[in-house]
Amino acid sequence: IENPFTLNLNSALKDAKQLMQEHDITGILITDSENKLQGILTLRDTLFEDNDDIKVSDIMTSHPITARATDSVSGVINLMIANNMKRIIIVNENRKLVALVQFRDLLKKIL
Fold this sequence. Notes:
Elements: E1 6-8, H1 13-23, E2 27-31, E3 37-42, H2 43-46, E4 61-62, E5 66-68, H3 73-82, E6 87-91, E7 97-102, H4 103-110
Parallel strand pairs: 1-2, 5-6
Antiparallel strand pairs: 2-3, 3-4, 6-7
């Protein structure tokens, strides 16, 4: 997924909920003004929060596991297996968001 859904750190939870509902997604990548990854907000993060005006940065998961754009496909697959992940965020050397990759798509590359 080359252009995954993102929101800025200062976005309100209501914006995230609306984006999730409109696009039938369960996670949004949270970036700063330079498009550097800061965290991920998942549907699970939103379930028990009643304040829709809270900033996503207050409830997101900071420092999610990522892979680098320069990592090998097999290295990324091993990282995903070790961490029981279906998707992984790909960043460049400056932690700028590159893509979101699904496990099944990586398997297709090697099979």
